[in-house]
Records
---
Amino acid sequence: MDFKLSEEQLLIKEAARDFAKNELLPGVIERDEKQEFPKEQVKKMAELGFLGMMTSPEYGGSGMDTISYVMVMEEISKIDASCSVIVSVNNSLVCWGLENYGTEEQKKKYLTRLASGEIIGAFCLSEPEAGSDATSQKTTAIEKDGHYIINGTKNWITNGGTADVYLVIAQTHPEKKHKGINAFILEKGMPGFEIGPKEQKLGIRGSDTHSLIFNDVKVPKENRIGEDGFGFKFAMKTLAGGRIGIAAQALGIASGAYELAKEYSKVRKSFGTEICNHQAIAFKLADMHTQIEAARHLVIKAAWDKDNGHDYDLSGAMAKLYASQVAMDTAIEAVQIHGGNGYVKEYHVERLMRDAKITQIYEGTSEIQKIVISRGLLAE
């Protein structure tokens, strides 16, 4: 086994770390307070090639491997998880889905602009009554005169108000259940396509989250992704890779909280010495570091599986399940180590704690990950 990163991967990781510290850290507290979308920061991430990292250069991407991608996700998430979820959705869900399952025409029309960061995308699966149960799609797509007419509502859509391209999952043949579901490419501004109010969220508050409403939206048949009835499989295949991105986000949140806690423990004094010299604090740091390292190995293993053409459903689910729990536990302990200072915004850890929670919910809750893992184990 070789646990070393390549020279190229290390350079990418360092570039992401420098970008996060120099470009994301200034103003991150204010963006969180105001729920301000990081428009300028997203432009700079596009310039660095972070919005189409795994997409082929033929379609405007950087052509990097999944391990490089998770390195970037970790470093950005240490500072600003609102920015990292934009990277995750655009890379894992939108660009990857289009490159692997889109037609050549769809790739040239949409993927090249998405991968270069000229525009960003959104992935639209969740609904008011179809969160964890993705088979219960109420949004409909009825074929008529060479088009599809789409009606319904999508909830909790990342990049919901700022995206230009939306991958929408909808039911065409209810009698076929999940085998009747399709995936479509929609564009902002299509008649009948409305964007609902911005959600008021606990964490990742700089991320742009909206409901979407479709009222007789007319979509060309050539905007369907894959064969008729491929939509559910498309969503599941895409989400399997998305879990790796969110696992890396959780890892980054945990790492960021741990680093802040460790540094604070070296300067904060109590009972005549720095608090890191008290066993109660030192043991917390030991546990945090150990759990983060375990999570990191799970995340990199899942990325390695994907890069090497192995099945990554199980490893991706395990990485997300464990890393999201470590993110939550580590962020809580970081606040505890900071004491009263941990409860105020200027020390950053309270924001990381709020951001950590969503990693246990989106792209499949922790409970759903356990279903994926257990089914995979029992099928062996």
---
Amino acid sequence: MDRITAAEVFVEIVDRGSMAAAGQALEMSPAMVTRYLREMETWAGARLLHRTTRRLSLTPPGEQVLARCRAMLEVSAAMAVLGTDEADPVQGMLRVACAPSLAQSALARALPEFLRRHPRAAVDLRVDSRAVNLVEERIDLAIRITNDLDPNLIARRLTDCASVICASPAYLAEHDTPATPRDLSTHNCLTYSYFGHSLWEFVDIRGEHMEVPVSGRLSANEAQALLCAAEHGAGIALQPRYAARELIAAGRLVALLPGYEPKSLGIHAVFQSNRQMRPVLRALVDFLVEWFARPQ
């Protein structure tokens, strides 16, 4: 049997925590996964995994073999690149995950340019409000707006994401306009289910930080829905500036609380490892760093 494939199967079993998950990731039957694992154990001359009904764990020889398999696959990937078109080794499919608002405002504009540069590359864009599991869902790259990064993943900062407090003219005509962040406690605030929905953070012009508890009758797990609700008078929203910019310029939303800046977040490219990083993934990350650095 192919020992490179056997090494890939063994690494997938360890990374995904089960033989079934490895089989799904590799689109391989359970019987074939078992055969490749046995081949690897025969080749190593040792049992590589402790198997129980609940979990798998590495034996001491398994830990050594895992490190050598990773190195083998890295060399294999590097050799494969030598056989590609030297003018553009960037090729293959990438699965990219992103939140809806950022996908619409940024990636939908950036990715066509990347694909024009690299005609042999392809992207499958998965748009989802939740933070997907890169390993379980076979995602190569996730673009996330957060300051709370998973320490088990590699992240490269693309840019800052400034936010704005905003409401529609109709809402403000019926309610007092807040003068300070603390006034938000008396307003119907539209809260985001996945991000600190009851506590909004600000920095004033003196650099002082404050945290303000907010509440309201409408919350959602998708920022674009809250933006639309704010436009229709449902309450006060905390939104990325890039998402609210056009509505504010058109007068359909009003930016509030001048002198108080909502806490800025980072926009990050998140992936599993720098090792065995395919040229197409490295090229896309480098391109996004360049693209987000341009004036938007």
---
Amino acid sequence: MYVSLKDVAERAGVSFQTASKVLNGNSAVVSAATRERILDAARELGYVPNALARGLVRRDSLTVGILADDFSDVALSRFVVAAQQAIEREGHAALVTTTGPGRQEPLRTLQEHRVSGVLVIAPSLEGDVGIGEYLRGPLPAVTLNHIPGGGVPAVGSDHRQTGVLAAEHLLALGHRAIGTITGPTGRRVVVSRLDGFRATLAASGVELPGHRIHPTGWEARDAAEATHHLLDADPSITAVFVHNDNMAFGVLSALRTRGIPVPARLSIVGCDDAPLAEFAAPPLTTVRVPFEATGARAAALLLARIRGEPTDRKNLLPVELVVRESTAPPA
């Protein structure tokens, strides 16, 4: 049971209105003795202010909505946690609700709780026209993914550059027979990474024919299966760029089953720099995506918009190559 403001007022022997004013920071209306009596009663009862009720009085719910995809995606969960922590450090509450294409319930949940703004971390909504119309409405909004129709400030990484860095690293090692296992082709992040990867190879005169590109799901199991298809189609491949580290773990597993040593026979570059990447066998070379910094930047941008401050429309955070033991010159 929560202790109410009414309970505090009764313990202190004052009216509800007087207790409310004191506990909301307006002590000028009472004597010092009455103020102390109210504060003592609150401490004794363990009273915790009701942020929602206080927000309604101030016409500010003090609650920021986060609209996110399924948390089973580890990468997205890192964005969400970082954003939530940044919002809470500023004294606000974060209401996190999960969504998906065509689902209206999460939006209704945010509306019912009178959130002050919305942060979208939901790549599944990249093609949802309705979410674009909603986010261009009067409520301040920021997104980490593409919004149909634009018009919403965005924070993210330079995904094209992740492909560039992976290609430059493999080319510098001397690889020329290079393949890639991508995420789902409909995702913009996949298109951007593949574009940067392909263009960098082409600039060095290295082709990336269709049989060396294998799109699949984001899971390790999907990538393990894709590895077999890729190598069956072209056994001469000496290096593979994998579009996230979780998938790269599946690739490493598939290569072990085929008796292919990494990196002696085949080099692997991942993407994300997942917490387990440095503990893979061998430790994984990868392109680090700044998940925590991105989530925190997005939260700060949204809070600035809620306060009515001018903000940039697009914020790209840099990515960087982390070289470990899964890459080496071709045999």
---
Amino acid sequence: MSLPRIAVDAMGGDEGVRVMIEGAALARRRHDRFKFLLVGDEVRIAAALENHPNLKGASEILHAPDVVSGDDKPTQALRRAKTTSMGLAIDAVKRGEAGAAVSAGNTGALMAMAKVALRTMPGIDRPALAALLPTLGDHDLIMLDLGANAECDARNLIQFAIMGAAYARVVNGLEAPRVRLLNIGSEETKGTDNLRDAAAALKAATETLAFSFDGFTEADKLSRGDVDVVVTDGFSGNIALKAMEGAARFVADLLRRSFSSSLRSKFGFLISRPATELLKHHLDPNNHNGAVFLGLNGLVVKSHGGASAVGVANAVAVAARLLEENLTERITADLARVGAETIRSSGRSGKAAAPKDETAA
């Protein structure tokens, strides 16, 4: 049984067509049920497909004459949604010609286009960008928001918690994910009014939640593996994510420098190579690629702009997994379980912050 086809923005990312097509081809080799709508420059895509006959036979090309650049503001990209590869890939999801869209392009533009074209689900004020991060535990950590919303009120954070938990049950197979809010301390008195209000509302709704909520966690504990979903605003989440990515690169570069500093260290590297290769695999962001915009009436997956073909293949696999597991329907059911009144009554203002032209990413 084949899945609904996946629309791939073939022009997005640092290297565009070559990596996106190679990634889709790798995903197709791993899972022969995948079918694709490849969106972008028809001539360049067709040329790239000649090297991947297995993908060619499972794909259709949709020509797009324009591309969203990394410097385009969301408002600029929106005006060209009907001509760009990113906009047409999302539109294919809206029209039912694809089950999900994958792009490695401009995050802010992707967010804006997806929200305008697909709209948010009933009960969701704003979509959130969620990603998988490596931990020392048995499962990757799901963290959201990672840049879609620079400012969030308590109601937004509660909605993010519900969506993140539903995502964790799909990708990590957890019956009752452990959810916490990111804060500057674990004490109930720490943090902003929005954080404390969201925590109070979630604790009060414990009996109706499809997850376990136990207050706050701090940034230095994100990789321990003792929490499954961490919720924050997009500004803090994006900073935390980039700090973790920088730390991972620092460790990898430090090990490389240490092992090449002397003959003895080179010999030590040969002995410890299995362990260092495992570490490299664990820290490689390509192995955790594929952030998802949760809360939309349709699936949109964001691949890292610098992802390799392996990373793109993993992003495609994330999209397929969420299609197969009906993530959108699960979120809808969880929202109904918690109840609109719990979400609506949370926070002091009950009103979301005004949307910005820029995302935090």
